[in-house]
Amino acid sequence: SLEIARPKVKVIAGANRLSHYVYPAEARMGKGTYSGTLHARILAEIFDQNGKLIGRESYDRNLGSIPVMIRSDACNLANMNTKELCSKYEEPNETGCYFLV
Fold first, then answer.
1. What distance in Å separates the CA atoms of residue 12 and residue 33, rounded to the nearest whole number?
2. pLDDT recorded at residue 38
């Protein structure tokens, strides 16, 4: 299975590791691509010559960053109301459906 994590940045402050969600306005202001991390869960099954299952393992892998479409389900703006969008410096009437790369 595949999953796209919502866009975040990780900050190391002394001994603390902090992370916070990133919003499209921050990417527009020069902080880079608006992207999330693509994760995969891989299930490997091993069968003998008779088709009997003899082993099963699952692996979780980080496949890297992938651009997130603005206002998609993976976007941090998803399901925000007008007031919330304005607080994140977004235009409430904008439909999204584009990438910031």
1. 20
2. 97
